[in-house]
Design goal:
56% of the residues lie in helices and 17% in strands. By secondary structure, the chain is an alpha/beta fold. The longest helix is centred in the last third of the chain and has 46 residues. It has a single domain, classed as Rossmann fold (3-Layer(aba) Sandwich). The protein is elongated, with a radius of gyration of 20 Å. The N terminus is likely disordered. It has five helices and five strands.
């Protein structure tokens, strides 16, 4: 979704039905790490926001009413695969979270309660992964275009000498 370089201020959303978690996240990511952060108490509200805003990263709680984090992130991933997502859950849900990483493409999961430094490392890794994936895609598209142009020139040369 983003076309700016990685140095620009990333847009992050946090989805959790616990306002204490939202407040802690906003404080950590807005003040300490200087990210643009929007918080939502439900997956439905976050999904509506995604429809009209460019987002780089989503943190989502696993246990939420109406739509759990895996369902939400799976739905997001089908429409916006370039957005990296991290799911938050209690240690007792480790197997479910590993399946989410492997099956629906969640970038990583973090156990609650989390260590702020670990969270920031995971966040930076996710954003770097997104940036490198996007950059690699642009390079592949440019190489494909150049190869196509070279094929055209090669065909012109062959026709000129036949």
């Amino acid at each position: 979704m983003r076309t700016e370089k990685m140095e620009s201020k990333p847009n992050i959303i946090i989805v959790d039905d616990d306002n204490r978690v939202l407040t802690k996240f906003k404080k950590l990511l807005s003040n300490k790490a200087k990210y643009n952060v929007n918080a939502f108490v439900s997956a439905e509200k976050a999904f509506a926001y995604l429809k009209s805003n460019s987002i780089d990263l989503i943190f989502s709680d696993f246990h939420m009413p109406k739509m759990n984090g895996i369902t939400f992130l799976s739905k997001v991933g089908k429409i916006w695969p370039e957005i990296r997502s991290i799911i938050l859950a209690e240690a007792s849900n480790k197997e479910i979270m590993m399946n989410a990483v492997n099956e629906i493409g969640v970038f990583q999961y973090l156990e609650k309660p989390w260590n702020d430094d670990d969270l920031l490392i995971v966040l930076r890794n996710a954003l770097e992964n997104q940036y490198l994936t996007k950059t690699l895609g642009e390079i592949v598209r440019e190489i494909t275009k150049t190869n196509s142009e070279l094929d055209g020139l090669q065909n012109e040369i062959i026709r000129a000498f036949v």
